[in-house]
């Protein structure tokens, strides 16, 4: 219970708000003072709400998310696409920011529809803290908005939030009280995010396509496939000659009725999943589900059959048979009932799919996925309906293979679940074993005989691909990698990673700035460079200067820039403290402050025309150096 | 040994004076930013414009300058730009100069400048532009913000919010630009 207390304490950790932009207000030099001609009320900024009153921000952190609440003053709005929460900490993996849809704002000037928030809203950044100890983590919240009343926009805002995160070990605790606390599911939230995120992106289509293909495969299992022509007869009604159109319409109604039943099941499971999800933290629960998957897989391999109790199946079948074929309503009822009669081949994959959906906790995705699955299952029936019954392949032993494919998929699901509790090495080994063993079943290691069919060759080819992939995963595991998608990362492409390394070495050796302070420091460094007959670049830098950082990260790291600066003495004045010496240096050059870069020729004379202020792209900057001709 | 009874009042005085001097400083800043009397020489700045050319505000000394802070994501800013283009076109030869400073990323600015064919120099500077605008008296960093500078390099007007062509003409007319 101590753990539980710790957790609640953590959720309401104290926050500190610092207005980053406020730094600049300190350095605001006495400016302003209008002329005598002000005839407009507009210049009076007192009529404009202060940005912090226009957009009031409050935040809350939980173990795995940062919630930012914005109160938007009337007549003001924030841009949806300008809201960002950044966290720069190796121990924090941030998920996708969850934002409400916002209001569409058509702007004739932009010619596009923008999304904005006129009302109060909140946004959540899910994250996963993997650190070992408790730690203060800094989050940066950025936003930008306008006032419709005053007809102005505010400059981009950045607020810094410091939250204290507790050790990650607390998150993987087996304490059941902890495991069922819904907001404690740190890894799952990000998974869920991925799913709901996937819904908005193209990944959903891949998920749905996968379910469709799975459905199609299900249709080719031995307990479904032979039923299709019989089913056709029942649906359309026997003995009567039917038009292709009518038979297609009827099979479509049947399939849609079945699909909507499954869709509802998917939604229900998805909804319940919101609670179930938290359990999927607990190694014992994960372990039991993995065991279920293995059991389901073995049933697919034909060791035993799993199905609904025969009595229930029989009853449902009877009701179904009492429906009159040939009518739309009767067909729809049959379709609906058929979804409930779950045969031995379908049970295991369906349970697998449902667990998968439950785990995502996403009702929309659940519904859509099961709809796709049932459309896949119904597809052969639709083809049969449309072709008046001639287009299906012959039933045969190959259908057992389809069943086995499901077995392998179920084992895969089991390993996928296991990934969250077992070490990567173990799951990598399991993946490798799964692929290699499947490959052998596909005949990867059996020699082909002369008379073998094209199918044999195809399977063997596929088997070899799987075998190679399995071996690659195995090697990757031995090398300490943990991704099954890029098992050989860092191994195979040693050439390019070497070159990357050498670039970064170059960076450190080339762009190591010599720090100077004050005018005397500068003069001393310049005199030294002159004695060595070297040109000089002087960079004004401050921690609070965004473009200085951009220059550092984006421009100075560029090989072309480094090359252009080879042999040039690099001086840096870190003016973060902004003290008297720093200000004397500004005055010396007649500048406001950073960012500013100056070049001096070999005689120690500044090339005033080549001063740069603000951020410059690498390419541009390299050209700029070339043009200055300091070398 | 220090007597805590003596140290405490000293600390208290230090604390209060720090706070109050800060408050006074802020108040004075506010005052200078808002006073309508007297003139102020425009602060100096050096920045690279979109063409990579280094621009110093001094380069335009002797001209009547309309220094406009804007951004592509700011609808009221975009509304006033066509008017500025016309002003530059009509009064440029009388020594009138519009200069745009965008609180925005370079690409967005470049695209917009090309799209509406802005005929005056534009500097894209994001965060540094916010700071510069505050040095030009834009206390809250609101956009659009425009400053009119006379031929003596003094700031004669500061305008927060949209500045229409007609209003701008009235202001520059007083600085001897013939309308």
Radius of gyration of CA atoms of chain B, rounded to a whole number = 21 Å
Number of E-state strands of chain B: 7
Strand order of the largest sheet of chain A: 7-8-4-11-12
Per DSSP E runs of 2 or more residues, the count of β-strands of chain A stands at: 18
Unreliable residue runs of chain A:
1-43, 169-202, 492-510
Distance between the termini of chain A: 69 Å
Shape of chain A: elongated
Range of helix content of chain B: 40-55%
List strands and helices in order, with pairings.
The complex is a heterodimer of chains A (631) and B (179).
Chain A: H1 2-11, E1 16-19, H2 22-26, H3 51-54, E2 55-61, E3 65-72, E4 76-79, E5 84-87, E6 92-94, E7 103-107, E8 112-117, E9 121-129, E10 135-143, E11 145-147, E12 152-153, E13 157-165, H4 176-179, H5 186-200, H6 203-219, H7 227-236, H8 244-279, H9 283-300, H10 310-322, H11 328-340, H12 344-360, H13 363-386, H14 398-418, H15 424-441, H16 454-478, H17 494-510, E14 514-516, H18 518-531, E15 536-541, H19 546-555, H20 559-564, E16 569-574, H21 580-589, E17 596-600, E18 612-613, H22 618-628
Parallel strand pairs in A: 14-16, 15-16
Antiparallel strand pairs in A: 1-13, 2-3, 3-9, 4-8, 4-11, 5-10, 6-9, 7-8, 10-13, 11-12, 15-17, 17-18
Chain B: H1 4-34, E1 46-48, E2 54-56, E3 64-70, H2 75-91, E4 96-102, H3 106-116, E5 122-124, H4 127-135, E6 145-149, E7 155-160, H5 165-173
Parallel strand pairs in B: 3-4, 4-5
Antiparallel strand pairs in B: 1-2, 3-6, 6-7
What descriptors fit this protein?
heterodimer; A: 631 residues; five-stranded mixed β-sheet; 15% strand; disordered N terminus; B: 179 residues; two-stranded antiparallel sheet; 43% helix
């Amino acid at each position: 219970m101590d753990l539980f207390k710790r957790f609640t304490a953590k959720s309401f950790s104290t926050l500190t708000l610092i207005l980053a932009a406020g730094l600049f207000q300190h350095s605001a030099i006495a400016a302003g003072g209008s002329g005598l001609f002000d005839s407009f009320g507009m210049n009076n900024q007192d009529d404009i709400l202060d940005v912090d009153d226009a957009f009031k921000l409050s935040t809350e952190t939980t173990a795995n998310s940062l919630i930012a609440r914005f109160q938007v003053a009337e007549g003001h709005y924030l841009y949806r696409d300008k809201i960002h929460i950044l966290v720069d900490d190796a121990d924090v993996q941030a998920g996708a920011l969850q934002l409400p849809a916002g209001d569409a704002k058509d702007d004739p000037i932009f010619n596009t529809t923008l999304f904005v928030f006129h009302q109060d809203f909140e946004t959540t950044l899910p994250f996963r803290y993997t650190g070992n100890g408790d730690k203060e983590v800094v989050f940066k919240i950025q936003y930008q908005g306008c006032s419709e009343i005053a007809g102005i926009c505010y400059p981009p805002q950045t607020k810094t939030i410091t939250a204290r995160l507790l050790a990650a070990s607390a998150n993987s605790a087996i304490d059941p009280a902890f495991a069922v606390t819904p907001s404690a599911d740190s890894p799952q939230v990000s998974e869920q995010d991925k799913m709901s995120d996937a819904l908005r992106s193209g990944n959903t289509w891949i998920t749905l396509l996968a379910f469709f293909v799975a459905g199609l495969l299900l249709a080719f299992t031995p307990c479904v496939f032979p039923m299709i022509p019989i089913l056709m007869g029942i649906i359309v009604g026997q003995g009567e000659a039917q038009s292709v159109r009518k038979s297609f319409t009827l099979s479509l109604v049947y399939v849609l009725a079945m699909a909507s039943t499954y869709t509802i099941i998917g939604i229900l499971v998805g909804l319940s999943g919101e609670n179930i999800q938290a359990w999927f933290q607990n190694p014992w629960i994960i372990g039991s589900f993995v065991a279920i998957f293995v059991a389901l897989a073995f049933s697919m391999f034909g060791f035993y059959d799993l199905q609904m109790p025969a009595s229930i199946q029989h009853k449902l079948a009877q009701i179904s048979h009492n429906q009159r074929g040939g009518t739309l309503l009767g067909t729809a009822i049959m379709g609906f009932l058929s979804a409930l009669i779950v045969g031995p081949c379908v049970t295991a994959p369906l349970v697998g799919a449902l667990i998968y959906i439950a785990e995502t906790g996403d009702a929309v995705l659940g519904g859509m996925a099961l709809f796709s699955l049932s459309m896949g299952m119904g597809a052969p029936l639709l083809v049969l309906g449309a072709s008046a019954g001639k287009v299906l392949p012959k039933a045969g032993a190959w259908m057992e293979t389809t069943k086995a494919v499901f077995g392998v998929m179920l084992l895969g699901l089991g390993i996928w679940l296991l990934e969250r509790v077992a070490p990567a090495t173990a799951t990598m080994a399991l993946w490798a074993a799964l692929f290699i063993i499947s490959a052998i079943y596909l005949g990867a290691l059996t020699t082909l005989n002369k008379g073998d069919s094209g199918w044999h060759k195809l399977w063997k080819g596929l088997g070899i691909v799987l075998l190679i992939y399995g071996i690659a995963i195995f090697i990757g595991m031995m090398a300490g990698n943990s991704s099954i998608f890029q098992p050989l990362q860092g191994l195979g492409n040693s050439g390019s990673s070497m070159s990357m390394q050498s670039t970064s070495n170059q960076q450190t050796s080339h762009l190591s700035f010599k720090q100077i302070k004050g005018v005397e420091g500068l003069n001393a460094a310049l005199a030294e460079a002159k004695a060595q007959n070297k040109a000089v670049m002087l960079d004004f830098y401050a921690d609070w200067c965004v473009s200085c950082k951009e220059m550092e990260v984006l421009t100075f790291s560029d090989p072309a820039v480094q090359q252009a600066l080879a042999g040039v003495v690099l001086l840096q004045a870190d003016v973060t403290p902004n003290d008297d010496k720093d200000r004397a240096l500004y005055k010396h050059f007649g500048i406001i402050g950073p960012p500013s870069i100056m070049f001096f020729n070999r005689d120690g004379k500044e090339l005033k025309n080549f001063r740069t202020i603000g951020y410059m792209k690498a390419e541009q900057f390299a050209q700029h150096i070339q043009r200055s001709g300091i070398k | 040994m220090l007597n805590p009874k003596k140290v405490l009042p000293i600390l208290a005085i230090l604390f209060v004076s720090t706070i109050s001097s800060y408050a006074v400083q802020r108040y004075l800043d506010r005052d200078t930013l808002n006073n309508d009397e007297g003139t102020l020489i425009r602060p100096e700045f050096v920045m690279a414009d979109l063409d990579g050319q280094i621009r110093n505000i001094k380069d335009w000394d002797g001209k009547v300058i309309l220094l406009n802070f804007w951004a592509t994501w700011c609808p009221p800013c975009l509304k006033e730009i066509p008017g500025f283009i016309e002003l530059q076109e009509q009064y440029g030869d009388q020594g009138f100069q519009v200069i745009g400073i965008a609180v925005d990323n370079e690409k967005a600015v470049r695209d917009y400048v090309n799209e509406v064919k802005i005929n005056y120099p534009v500097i894209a500077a994001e965060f540094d532009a916010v700071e510069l605008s505050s040095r030009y008296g834009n206390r809250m960093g609101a956009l659009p913000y425009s400053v009119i500078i006379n031929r003596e390099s003094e700031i004669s007007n500061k305008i927060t919010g949209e500045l229409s062509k007609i209003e701008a003409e009235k202001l520059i007319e007083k600085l001897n630009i013939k309308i």
